[in-house]
Amino acid sequence: MINRNINAVYFSATGTTEKIVCHAAEKLAKTIQNQGTVTKINFTLPAFREQPASFSEADIVIMGVPVYAGRVPNVLLKYLNTFTGNGAWAVPVVVYGNRHYDDALIELNDILETTGFKVIAGAAFIGEHSFSKILGKDRPDEKDIAIVDEFADGISQKIINNQPTPVTVKGNRPYRRYYVPVNAEGIPVDIRKVTPKTNNDCTDCKLCADICPMGSIDYDDVSRINGICIKCGACIKSCPAEAKYYDDEDYLRHKQELEIQFTRRSEPELFV
C-alpha cells in the first residue's frame, strides 16, 4: 500500500467544520499510518485564499465547507476551482445548521472531480447554525464525533483494501437555487446586504476584524463594514463583550423561523 499523505482542508468561520474535518483526518491517519500526522490547510481567512493548492496521487484530501443557503458558499467557488487534484483521493464534507444540506454535497463533489480529484467518500454533518445559538446547539457533539470516527473507519477500510471505489452522494443536478427566506406575507426577501451592528459594549479588542473571513470589518473602526458580510456568525459568536448583533427585521424573522421549524435533531449522512 502506498504511504498516503492525509490532508485536512477546510473553511470554518466558527470552528465547527474544522472540528469535524480535522477529527476525521486524524482518525484516518492513525488507522492507516499508525500515527496522527495530518497536513492542515485552513483557508478561512482571505490571505489563505490567495494561493491555490496542488496535490498528488499520494494525497488523501478531506475537504470541508459549511452549507450556505443549501449550497457551497458562492464566495468560495472561485478559490475552490483553483485547486489541482492530480489524481489525489478526496472526501467532500459539508456541515449545515440542522435545516438541510440540499445540493451542497453534490456540488462540492463535482468541484473536486472537475479539478482532478478522485472522490472516494462523502458526508454531511451538523454544526451549530451560523445565525443561531439554539439551532444545532453545541454540535458537533459526542454522538456526532462518534459518527465521524465511523466515517473515518469506513474510508480507512477502502484504502487498506486498495478499493477506492467512487461513491454517489445525494443531491440534484442542476443544483437548486440558493435558499431564499420569505417575509410574513410569504414574499421572498433579500438579506445578502444585511450587516452586523456594534453596540457600546465594544472594547475595541479587534478580534472581530482579525477573524472575519471576508476581511470586511474595518480594523480602525470595527463598527464599519467595508466589504460583504456572509452572515457566518464569527464576529457575533466570538465577541467577548457580546457587542455584535443584527437588527434587520427580515433577518431576525428568518432566524426565528428556523429556530421554530427545525427543532428536530438532524443526523449525519455518510457515503462510503
Gist of the model:
The protein has 272 residues and is α/β, with parallel strands linked by helices. It is built from 7 helices and 9 strands; from the N terminus they run βαββαβαββαβααβαβ.
Write out key terms for the chains shown.
alpha/beta; two-stranded antiparallel sheet; 28% helix; 7-stranded mixed β-sheet; Alpha-Beta Plaits; Rossmann fold; 272 residues; single chain
Verbal overview:
The protein has about 270 residues and is of the alpha/beta class. It is built from 7 helices and 9 strands; from the N terminus they run E-H-E-E-H-E-H-E-E-H-E-H-H-E-H-E. The two termini are about 20 Å apart. It has 2 domains: about 180 residues, 3-Layer(aba) Sandwich (Rossmann fold), CATH 3.40.50.360; about 50 residues, Alpha-Beta Plaits. The longest helix has 19 residues. Helices cover about 30% and strands about 15% of the residues. The chain is globular and about 60 Å long.
Write the layout of secondary structure elements.
Blueprint: E1 5-10, H1 16-33, E2 39-42, E3 59-66, H2 77-80, E4 89-96, H3 104-114, E5 118-119, E6 122-126, H4 142-160, E7 197-198, H5 207-211, H6 234-238, E8 244-245, H7 249-261, E9 269-271
Parallel strand pairs: 1-2, 1-3, 3-4, 4-5, 4-6
Antiparallel strand pairs: 6-9, 7-8
